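Subject: Ig-like domain-containing protein structure
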Amino acid sequence: KYLEPKPSSADISMSGAVLKIFNIQFEDEGIYECEAENYRGKDKHSAKVYVQAHPEWVEHINDTERDIGSEFHWPCIATGKPIPTIRWLRNGLPYWKGELRFSSLKLEDSGMYQCVAENIHGMIYSNAELKVIVLPPTFEFYPMKKEVLAAKGGQAIIECKPRAAPKPKITWSKGTEILRNSTRIHIWYDGSLEIINVTAVDAGN
């Protein structure tokens, strides 16, 4: 590399024979050439500098709770050179290599997990607990409103967000009538009920 102007992180000795690079970074990697010259002639020699680094976390795992049956991706990302390999332990035993994904969590997936990032310069660890939850539907955490006011011709939204694991099936009814999606009624993915163009007929329980 031609060090003109010379970087602040580099120093060349008074004789010019020694190049020192401090706080070396990946961008310092490359081919360096030293040229010597006097009145009898000149010669030069080149050498390649490889910059490598021990693993460092970009994103590590943390204690996590997830519903049974849910999909789950647990990111565990490290940087370094050579690029670190990722492997997993569960309850102290070898479990997986690479990216960890669950398509449908089971109770037995609960446990203490350890993500290990490793290259030739060392390894780092990250530990966390995964809890897979089973819970019958309850409105204790998100109780429904007892009354919802809506203007005639307007819009009404009634939230229905029970805590449950796995995700419960939501059914809405008015009196003995089971409500389904229509031009005026829409049941959201989270279970909430939306009524548009409200009329007096919509009043009730």
